[in-house]
């Protein structure tokens, strides 16, 4: 069995197109949308500060950065006739 794990930190990515649209996106069908998670986790003041900051980033076209990780697992059936 072989496991190949690769992690990349600070990978350049596209700018945020529209913050209001992004808040309605769920990164995975099994988790809430970003906006729903923000409402659940932050106070009204914190949400307002985040919205102001993210709206300014989107308006300026500031590129984003991401962390990416991939894992590849390979296995082979053992040879029993050795």
Largest sheet: 2 strands, antiparallel
Instruction: Measure the end-to-end span.
Output: 18 Å
Helix amount: 25-40%
Number of helices: 3
Q: What's the order of the H and E elements? A: EHHHE
What structural class do the secondary elements suggest? alpha+beta
Q: Stretches where pLDDT falls below 50 for ≥5 residues?
A: none
Beta strand %: 25-35%
Q: In what order do the strands lie side by side in the largest sheet?
A: 1-2
Extended strand count: 2
Query: What is the residue-mean pLDDT, rounded to a whole number?
Result: 90
**Radius of gyration, whole Å:** 20 Å
What would the principal axes of the Cα set say about the shape?
A: elongated
Features:
single chain; 82 residues; alpha+beta; two-stranded antiparallel sheet; 28% strand
Write the layout of secondary structure elements.
Elements: E1 2-13, H1 19-22, H2 34-41, H3 44-60, E2 64-74
Kindly describe this structure.
Helix content is 35%, strand content 28%. Strands 1-2 form a two-stranded antiparallel sheet. It has 3 helices and 2 strands, in the order βαααβ. It is an alpha+beta fold and 82 residues long.
């Amino acid at each position: 069995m072989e496991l190949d794990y690769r992690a990349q930190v600070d990978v350049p990515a596209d700018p945020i197109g529209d913050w209001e649209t992004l808040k309605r996106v769920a990164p995975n069908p099994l988790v809430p949308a970003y906006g729903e998670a923000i409402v659940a986790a932050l106070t009204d003041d914190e949400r307002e500060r985040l919205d102001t900051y993210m709206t300014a980033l989107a308006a300026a076209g500031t590129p984003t950065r991401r962390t990416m990780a991939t894992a590849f697992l390979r296995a082979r059936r053992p040879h029993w006739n050795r």
